[in-house]
Specification:
single chain, alpha+beta, two-stranded antiparallel sheet, two-stranded parallel ribbon, 3 helices, 4 strands, about 20% strand, globular
Length: about 90
């Protein structure tokens, strides 16, 4: 996992979890470890209402996450700023 950030609203009713992965293989590894070690406790505390996947995940990732009915957001070509181009 490249990044994991958690944020919670002032009233503690909304929690956003942002996770960024190197590739689809890393997502699969994470879901397998998470499922085995933390899923039961996680789902006792939080009820996911929306999952948004950015990028181009593999079919295996899509199958693994199908139960949470994610929204997929593909990159919009021509609107990606590269670090070398920053001014």
């Amino acid at each position: 996992m490249l990044t994991q950030e958690w944020a919670i609203s002032d009233d503690r009713q909304v929690c956003h979890i942002y996770e960024r992965f190197q590739d689809s293989a890393a997502v699969i590894t994470h879901t397998q470890l998470f499922g085995a070690k933390f899923a039961a406790r996680f789902f006792e505390i939080l009820k996911p209402t929306r999952v948004v996947i950015y990028g181009t995940p593999s079919v295996e990732v899509k199958d693994a996450l199908a139960a949470v009915n994610p929204v997929y957001m593909a990159p919009l070509e021509g609107f990606r700023k590269h670090p070398a181009a920053q001014s």
